[in-house]
Design brief:
heterodimer; A: alpha/beta; 6-stranded mixed beta sheet; 4-stranded antiparallel beta sheet; about 35% helix; globular; B: alpha+beta; 10-stranded mixed beta sheet; 9-stranded mixed beta sheet; 21 strands
């Protein structure tokens, strides 16, 4: 489902070059739960951004569901992201002027769904994450955990096969973080999505079936059997 | 120095914003400089001409455009205080030379004039010039300036064609004047002829235009004036040459006022653009300010930082604006000069607007001062930033309730004062103060009204595009400070357009009615190519000849000319009032239609225009004292009508009275009415055949004259198009400025949009929709304020400019046309910012705070 082949990411500001990822290769199958761990600056978030199509590698190839991201132009990449990938961010990244329903329906409207159907789907997803009573609330009126639930619902709006979460509990207290983690795994079980979580939290990592460890931009450990 | 580096770093990051700020200053300064220079160029050209021709003349005796009989010269020469008195005729004649336009020809008495003027001949047939009698013996003799000769490749003996009362005639150059003095007049397009030859050329009969006087040694100007006035009586003006400048300024006044108002608006718009830029900069740099304050920078230092930036922007903008204004001035001066010629028959040869260092420096200084004023409030706000709050995350865009209340109260107070001043009545000071207060009230209300309108637009925008439209509206709602200055600038510009456009529409409507009822002859016969021009006259016998042509039902003789009335020139129209009563049945504003004609035809009264009456506070029945060569003619006002012949006012008297008091039988227009079934083309042909031999004559059809009048009106009101151009520029500058900030502020939001699947085109849509929404808000508020501004513009026209009462007609066609223009400009302004919004790293956008 997800394959990286000799991926490099180098940042340059004209005077210096920073290598964020070096020669990274691995494969992730359908329905896996994978934690990507490593110290700060190891390239975890960069890796997730590349898989999610938010950024492009300097070298190498990323294949998502048989499609090489390098062969796609911006619009094709965006459509792929819209259809295949749900993203959950550490800081939620909800639009502050839209209600919960509107935030969740956002990707569906962008995809051209019928308005009523998009609203209906958004309500269902919010019900799924336990926020039926918060449909018309603005993000400012929600707690941190509730906002992350809305973000998760939004990520699942188009029923993507892949869910990427970048430090999803990083901005939450431990109890709320635990609830969110449980929610993510529950949704993985129910919906069959492949789940990748970037985290520095050992407990979060332990909740996943597989752990990829990054250090200095390289994969130094892969708990899956047969990993390179 | 270190703080200056902070400013420099900000400038480098926001080059476009700075460019727009500088452009805002440059716009205001450029328009101000251009209008002032153009105005001065036109005035200076006139003064140069007057002063150049005046020479050593100390006083001038004249009676307006009508002139006076030759015998008056003897009366002037008989005054003991007079040392020298020389008669003069002056006229701008069509040269017929390609690209040369008009030539100002002065007719002088060669025997006596050289004591007052120095011709400073460069070359000439010395024998001829040495002996004026030889010059006089050659009636085709003419002296030209060196500049004119060089431009046209003329030398001694060259022949040039001039339009005369007898048609095109050829004249021989027999003298070339050196540069300087007299030859500077009229931009060098000056010629001198013998006065009696010029009388014939112009068909003036035995009349002079004026007498130039030099006084005896030791006689003061005041003494000389007194003595001459006593000798001549009330029908003459005795003034220094410079007084003619005042008369010209009176004619130019309405143009000057319009130009001044336009430049003031442009400056005000520039203020808003600058204020907007700095207000946004302060908001964006709150953290930086907080850090500086936390580290010990005083409030004064912070204020000085921003004012310093404003001074730099002001300096750059002022220099650019001054240069641009100087370049524009020439075009505007030429445009005004053309208007003056066509509307008033006043011919000017306007030179290149000089780069007056004083004016340019003053305008540049004004640009800096305006920048500082515009940036003062944002700088003061920056100085007030609380370092603790500034270093916390969170926006600071929402208008506080307290601030909103304060604005409401101030606005209500200003509006109430404006209404009171309007009702209080007559004082112009109160009226203009009220106008300013009304605008101030609107400006204070702009942020709140813009917010309301943005909220009202949200459902519509969301209906059009659920995501892009909603986000566009939310961007305006969440950041009123970012938008309100742009909206205010756009509102002001559009209000000005509606104000002027509405007056133009009202005048146009009234013009149509006037033309239909007053300019209703089938044909107009005149010796002047342009009907407003009164250079040439023709004898009354031409009318008798025309009457004999088959198909002619009635002929009406008209003599019109400007005469001085209480220091300003007004148009005197001498017509056959009894005949007019049969053909011009326009209901007067005051007075009885039949009674006013009857009394005027009997030589017992005058009919005046509304502008004449209002500008001088006169009413029906008041007595008007007209200075005439035979004395002071006193006539009661029998009727007040709406007449557009002259902005300073028109008086109609019967032709018989004119002949009696001015001893002049000439006419400059013959109005011809045809019998039913007569062919206008055939009658025109007959008129030209019988009357145009050896005579300059033009026969204009009714439609031709109508088209000419409306073309003049269009030209005058084309100023409205310039204001529309300013409004569009404001829309584009302001919206680009606002959007660049909006995109920066919304960087993360736009990144989220793309991260969750928004295509770049969809991001562009939200930016476009935001821009168009700003355009819509600006339009709504602009049209609303325009409706108020129109009322004030009409009142200004009535009370101050022209004394005309015009109907309030909101210019709906113009307003309708403005909608696609402004929305189109708003959309165009959004194209480039929309592109910047979709560029750059998505990851950085998501991390942006």
């Amino acid at each position: 489902m997800i394959e990286l082949r000799r991926v490099w990411k180098v940042y340059s500001n004209g005077r210096r070059e920073v290598v964020a990822l070096r020669d990274v290769s691995f494969r992730i199958g359908r329905d896996e739960t994978v934690a990507i761990v490593g110290p700060s600056g190891s390239g975890k978030s960069t890796l997730l951004n590349l898989i999610g199509g938010l950024d492009r590698p300097s070298q190498g190839e990323i294949v998502i569901e048989g499609r090489s991201l390098g062969e796609l132009d911006d619009d094709e990449l965006t459509r792929l992201r819209r259809e295949k990938i749900g993203f959950v961010f550490q800081f939620f990244h909800l639009l502050p002027t839209l209600t919960c329903v509107e935030n969740v329906a956002l990707p569906l409207h962008l995809a051209g769904w019928d308005r009523r159907q998009a609203q209906q789907r958004a309500r269902e997803l919010l019900g799924l994450v336990g926020l039926s009573g918060r449909l018309d609330h603005l993000p400012d009126e929600l707690s941190g955990g509730e906002r992350q639930r809305v973000a998760i619902a939004r990520a699942l709006a188009a029923h993507p096969p892949i869910l990427l979460a970048d430090e999803p509990t990083g901005n939450l207290d431990s109890r709320t973080g635990g609830e969110i983690l449980a929610l993510l795994h529950e949704l993985h079980e129910r919906l069959g999505t492949t789940l990748l979580i970037v985290t520095h939290d050992a407990q979060v990592a332990a909740s996943c079936a597989r752990t990829l460890t990054l250090r200095d931009g390289q994969i130094v450990a892969d708990s899956a059997a047969g990993a390179p | 120095m270190l703080l200056a580096r902070l400013s420099w770093a900000y400038l480098k990051r926001h080059k476009l914003r700075w460019a727009l700020t500088v452009a805002g200053v440059a716009l205001g300064v450029a328009v101000l400089v251009a209008m002032r220079l153009a105005n001065r160029a036109v005035l200076a050209s006139f003064h140069r001409t007057v002063d150049g021709i005046a020479g050593r003349t100390e006083l001038q005796v004249h009676a307006g455009d009508l002139g006076f009989p030759e015998e008056v010269l003897e009366r002037v020469q008989a005054v003991p205080q007079v040392r020298a008195a020389a008669p003069v005729i002056e006229a701008a004649l069509d040269t017929g030379l390609p690209g040369q336009g008009y030539l100002l020809v002065i007719g002088v008495d060669m025997t006596g004039d050289r004591s007052l003027r120095d011709y400073d001949l460069e070359s000439g047939e010395e024998a001829i010039i040495e002996d004026p009698l030889v010059f006089l013996a050659q009636p085709d003799s003419i002296m030209v300036t060196r500049e004119f000769a060089q431009r046209n490749g003329l030398g001694i003996g060259s022949r040039i064609p001039l339009g005369t009362a007898q048609g095109i005639r050829w004249f021989t150059v027999r003298g070339i004047m050196r540069s300087g003095g007299l030859s500077q007049a009229f931009g060098g397009n000056l010629a001198v002829m013998d006065i009696y030859a010029l009388q014939y050329v112009l068909g003036r009969g035995r009349r002079f235009d004026r007498i130039d006087v030099a006084l005896q040694e030791g006689v003061s100007l005041a003494e000389g004036q007194r003595a001459l006035r006593e000798a001549l009586g009330p029908g003459f003006e005795v003034e220094p040459p410079a007084a003619r400048g005042r008369h010209f300024e009176a004619i130019l006044r309405s143009f000057s006022l319009t130009l001044n108002i336009t430049s003031l608006f442009a400056m005000l718009v520039g203020v808003f653009i600058i204020y907007n830029s700095f207000a946004i900069a302060v908001t964006q740099r709150r953290t930086e300010i907080g850090i500086l304050r936390a580290l010990g920078a005083t409030r004064g230092r912070i204020r000085a930082l921003f004012l310093g930036e404003a001074a730099v922007a002001g300096s750059l903008g002022s220099v650019a604006g001054a240069m641009a204004g100087w370049l524009m001035a020439r075009w505007i001066a030429g445009y005004v000069a053309r208007l003056l010629q066509e509307v008033y028959g006043v011919v000017q040869n306007v030179q290149t607007a000089p780069a007056e260092p004083g004016l340019l420096a003053a305008s540049a200084g004004l640009g800096i001062v305006v920048s500082l004023i515009a940036a003062w409030i944002p700088a003061a706000n920056a100085a007030r930033v609380d370092p603790v709050r500034a270093l916390q995350k969170g926006k600071y865009q929402v208008l506080s309730a307290g601030e909103t209340r304060a604005r409401w109260w101030l606005s209500a107070g200003a509006a109430a004062a404006a209404v009171i001043f309007l009702l209080l009545g007559r004082s112009l000071v109160l009226f203009y103060t009220g106008y300013i207060l009304a605008i101030l009230a609107a400006l204070l209300m702009t942020p709140t009204l813009a917010l309301w309108l943005a909220r009202a637009l949200r459902p519509l925008l969301a209906w059009l595009r659920p995501v892009e439209g909603a986000l566009a509206a939310d961007s305006l709602i969440q950041a009123p400070r970012r938008t309100s200055a742009t909206v205010a600038a756009l509102m002001l510009s559009l209000a000005m357009v509606i104000g002027f456009g509405g007056v133009a529409r009202s005048i146009y409507n009234s013009l149509i009615e006037w033309v239909n009822t007053t300019l209703n002859p089938d044909l107009f016969v005149t010796p002047n190519a342009e009907i407003a021009n009164r250079t040439y006259v023709m004898p009354a016998e031409v009318g008798s000849e025309i009457e004999r042509i088959p198909g002619v039902r009635q002929v009406q003789l008209v003599r019109s000319a400007r005469i001085p009335y209480r220091g300003t020139p007004v148009l005197l129209v001498a017509a056959e009032a009894g005949k007019l009563a049969q053909t011009v049945r326009r209901r007067p504003l005051e007075g009885d239609l039949d009674d006013m004609y009857r009394r005027t035809a009997a030589g017992q009264a005058t009919i005046v225009s509304e502008s004449f009456a209002r500008l001088r506070g006169l009413r029906l029945g008041d007595v008007v004292e007209l200075p005439a060569p035979k004395g002071l003619l006193r006539l009661p006002i029998a009727g007040i009508t709406r007449d557009y012949s002259d902005q300073q006012g028109t008086l109609l008297i019967d032709r018989s009275l004119y002949r009696q008091w001015w001893a002049d039988d000439s006419v400059n227009v013959i109005r011809v009415y045809l019998a039913p079934g007569a062919s206008a083309a055939e009658v025109k042909r007959q008129i030209l055949e019988r009357c145009a031999r050896g005579r300059r004559l033009f026969v204009l059809g009714n439609q031709e004259v109508r088209r000419y009048i409306f073309r003049l009106a269009d030209q005058w009101f084309s100023m409205t198009y310039n204001q529309i151009a300013v409004a569009i520029l404001v829309a584009v500058l302001g919206i680009v400025n606002t959007l660049t900030v909006s995109i920066t502020d919304r960087r993360r939001e736009l990144g989220i949009l793309q991260a969750v699947g928004g295509l770049k085109q969809q991001v562009r849509h939200t930016i476009w929709m935001e821009a168009v929404a700003i355009g819509v808000i600006g339009l709504v508020l602009g049209l609303g304020l325009g409706a108020i501004s129109l009322y004030y513009s009409l009142e200004m026209t009535r009370r101050d400019l022209a004394g005309l009462s015009l109907d309030y007609v909101f210019p709906l066609p113009l307003a309708t046309w403005l909608v696609p223009v402004i929305l189109g400009a708003a959309f165009a302004a959004s194209l480039w910012p929309a592109e910047t919004a979709v560029r750059g790293s998505l990851v950085e956008a998501l991390e942006y705070e």
